[in-house]
Amino acid sequence: MANKKPNHAARLLRITASWVVALIIFFPILWMVLTSFKSELDAFSMPPHFLFTPTLENYREILARANYLHYAWNSIVTAGGATVLGMLLAVPAAYAFAYHPTRKTKDVLLWMLSTKMLPGVGVLVPIYLISRDLNMLDSKTALIIIFALINLPIMVWMIYTYFRDIPYDILEAARMDGAGTWQTMFRVLIPVSRGGLASTALLCLILSWNEAFWSLNLTTTSAAPLTALVASFSSPEGLFWAKLSAVSTLACAPILVLGWLSQRQLVRGLTFGAVK
Amino acid sequence: MNARVRKRPERLLAQPANIMLLLWMIVPLAMTLYFSTQYYNLLYPGKSAFVGLENFGYFFNYPSFWTSILNTIVLVGSVLVITVVGGIGISVLVDETFPGQGIVRMLLISPFFIMPTVSALVWKNLLMNPVSGFLAWVWKLFGATPVNWFADWPLLSVIVVVSWEWLPFAILIFVTALQSLDREQLEAARMDGARGLAIFRYLTLPHLARPIAVVVMVEAIFLLNVFAEIFVTTNGGPGDATTNIPYLVYTQALLEFDVGAASAGGLVAVVLANIMAVFLIRLIGKSLTER
């Protein structure tokens, strides 16, 4: 029975199912945000309170007592610093790979990719000891360098695929007009590919912001970012759910918004250009 | 100026990135290799000595080591199956346009952007707590006894949390990949009377072959390194029930200060990762030469 008209009941069922699945998957985030506006008593109540008097008490408390801004600043500096450093290294590299390839370029790109596969624990001990000896335990500088390096392969790959899509003629034209390498890069290439570069930077920012292996192992307080602040809420059982939720909401909100804005472009970076 | 001469300096632009990555990879890895042959405990700094393969022997005879390998494989394997199967199902479900599709997709990919420590703690407390968690309420609603998730099913609980984090990634990739599926071909198949299942089997699934492979490999890289989720929820326990290789190395290095043993464990993780890496490099390499 070939149904030519779209089956309305089936379509409605499909739409309903889509919404239900989406809401289930999103529910933990929604619940976290709701809990952040509850009193600690409401947060722990059973059965759960769906209607409650919202309070900003948790946020006030977090900002005043938990030193939230200190950790937020560390997150901004480390993730932002890593993004800047990563871009400074990745853009020239991608430029060289895309426009001046050698016979080895493909191997070098694959080798870069392979460094991504080196598990953090494989180098945890030496990195910890080196940081200790350089007096860089609990330092933002160490985190910036590490975050930049763990994301560098993804960034080079992503920018490389963007550059590859730009017709070489444009660069050649600039060259004809007498522009040098740097001029060509800054006046032509970067403006033309700014969308791709922006999403690359964004991906690095998101991944660095959420990175938790190195930030938990290499920091204690002075350089600890938000991932570590949240982790400090892990011990008490059920006592500080509302505050945990408030901290979590503050820590995740900016990245969630950035993620929503850039979902399409992130695919390219996360799959090393294999899916566009 | 001669074009050939001009080309050379530009190739040097790749060197800073190359050198930094080389340093990042080779130096620590060489040190790990070296430490793995040493007796070296940070509590007794003066006493380091060459012990050959003793650290590896210690690990291979250490029951938690085999448990941690098994846990790692179970964790990586189940999360891969859940996210790939679930991801395909959900992305096919939301593929046709409908009102609010954009919002549905936004909701679906959101968990991917939540930091791991938050995901783990929200699940452990707000949702999975046996007394006041939301799931306990749902269980009671159906007259069932609430599950004490992290105490009775620790590894399963970790798998649930990590799957929730990575399912959106699979959905994001598959949804994007499905958009490039040829609509005319789809229409033609429908005209010929192909039903949903046949379309899925002969059109959708083959089209998703490469995205599936990519998702499996990329997730494998990250899943081998799951650490924060375990660190903030179970501390590897109860006992060693949720200790994976990263967590075991962490306990050896930073809790017991046994640099030698931790390095040996780290190398095991590297070997495991390399086995997976070989496949990934091949896969991505193929897609690179195809163009």
TrEMBL record, chain A:
GO cellular component: plasma membrane
TM stretches of this protein: 12-34, 71-97, 109-130, 142-163, 184-209, 240-261
Compartment(s) of residence: Cell membrane
InterPro entries associated with the record: BP-dep_ABC_trans_perm (IPR050901), MetI-like (IPR000515), MetI-like_sf (IPR035906)
One GO BP: transmembrane transport
Top-rank lineage group of the source organism: Bacteria
SUPFAM superfamilies: MetI-like
Ranges for domain ABC transmembrane type-1: 72-262
Protein name, per record: Mannitol ABC transporter permease
Similarity annotation: Belongs to the binding-protein-dependent transport system permease family. MalFG subfamily.
CDD domains cross-referenced by the UniProt entry: TM_PBP2
Keyword terms: Cell membrane, Membrane, Transmembrane, Transmembrane helix, Transport
Membrane association type: Multi-pass membrane protein
TrEMBL record, chain B:
Localization in the cell: Cell membrane
Residue span(s) of domain ABC transmembrane type-1: 69-280
Single GO BP term: transmembrane transport
Keyword Transmembrane on entry: yes
UniProt organism field: Luteibacter yeojuensis
Chief localisation class: membrane
InterPro entries: MetI-like, MetI-like_sf
ATP-binding found in the keyword field: no
Stretches of the chain forming a coiled coil according to its record: none
GO cellular component: plasma membrane
Keywords carried by this UniProt record: Cell membrane, Membrane, Transmembrane, Transmembrane helix, Transport
Pfam family, one: BPD_transp_1
Transmembrane segments: 12-35, 69-94, 106-123, 155-178, 199-224, 264-285
Similarity comment: family membership: Belongs to the binding-protein-dependent transport system permease family.
Bilayer disposition of the protein: Multi-pass membrane protein
Listed name of the protein: Sugar ABC transporter permease
